[in-house]
Amino acid sequence: AVVSTQSTGNLAEAKQKFSELFLNVKQEYREDFITFIKNSEEIDDFISDPHIQILDTIAEHLRSVVPSCGALESETIINLDDPKTEHIDAFLFPDDVLDDLCDDGLMSRHYCLTCGSKKTQKLDLVSHSFSSWELKWLFTKILPPMNNKTILDVGSRLGCVLYGAAEFTDASKIIGVEMNTDFCVLQQSIVERFKYEKVEIVQADIRTQDQLLRTSDVIILNNVFEHFMSKEEQVKCWDMIFGSIRRKGQVLVTVPSLQESLDDLEGQLPNGWVEEVEWELEDELVPDECDLDSLKSIHVYQVL
């Protein structure tokens, strides 16, 4: 695992770089450039929520290097070719971006029940990532403050949970465990590019990371096993989770619920292991950018 040691630029350096950028603009375009700075909606968005803007910048970069589903050729996703299901990564393709692509005919939210007809059905959209706004809600509304805590994302893939934790929390350590080499390289490039000094990428099977599971304060499991492993392998992973996450007060964040994940495996939660932490969702306070159903699918548990 490698952690970037580069320091974040200070205000004086930022001012100098901005001046250099301005001087690099041709004289005849400088007035237009200043007008852009004053009136740009993108800059307004950055000022209103710079963390979201940074995450959107990361997502834009990732869209240029990974497929729309967020799956790489080097990984296996079960039922990826199901015609009734579309794997659309919510971090890469938030609703506004997805709407634009649908309007342009590059993507669709529906599939045809009878080829060539107008008889269509909504696709079952599956995401293996939280959107930027869901990450903000998770780390600022659902979970308590993360000061001096260690956050562990199991199966970190594109790394969006890691970047969200870096932007929205004061966690002392943010660790992603990922088996796939390509994803690890991709995550590390983002960590270094955006100088996320508290983020660490560990390339490993989570079943070899007993110590990390035992010592982390918050463990995030977002659709972590269901779409990537046989049922036999899933059972082994859950057994590891049950055996290693035992410290009183540890917090698990899961999508879907623990019991829903286990139902398909005909399994049961260990008696007296965790209790679900109820959190309130006031619909009228949720921004339009957040998908209510996605937020409601987030479950939080505390180890007893």
Keywords:
304 residues; alpha/beta; seven-stranded mixed sheet; two-stranded parallel sheet; 12 helices; 39% helix
Spatial strand order of the main sheet: 7-6-5-8-9-11-10
Write the element-wise H/E pattern from the N-terminal end onward: HHHHEHEEEHEHEHEHEHEHEHE
Q: How does the major sheet shape up?
A: 7 strands, mixed
Q: Report the uncertain regions.
A: 1-7, 116-120
Number of strands: 11
Helical content, roughly?
25-40%
Q: What is the first-to-last residue Cα distance? A: 31 Å
Instruction: Determine the mean pLDDT.
Output: 82
Give the count of helical stretches: 12
Q: What percent strand?
A: 15-25%
Shape descriptor reads elongated
Compute the gyration radius: what is it?
A: 21 Å
Overall structural class, as computed from helix and strand content, comes to alpha/beta
Can you describe what's shown?
The protein is of the alpha/beta class and 304 residues long. Helices cover 39% and strands 15% of the residues. The protein contains 12 helices and 11 strands. Strands 7-6-5-8-9-11-10 form a 7-stranded mixed β-sheet. Strands 1-4 form a two-stranded parallel sheet. Helix 3 packs across helix 4 (50-63) and helix 6 (132-142) crosses helix 7 (160-168). It is elongated, with a radius of gyration of 21 Å. The model is unreliable at 1-7 and 116-120 (pLDDT under 50).
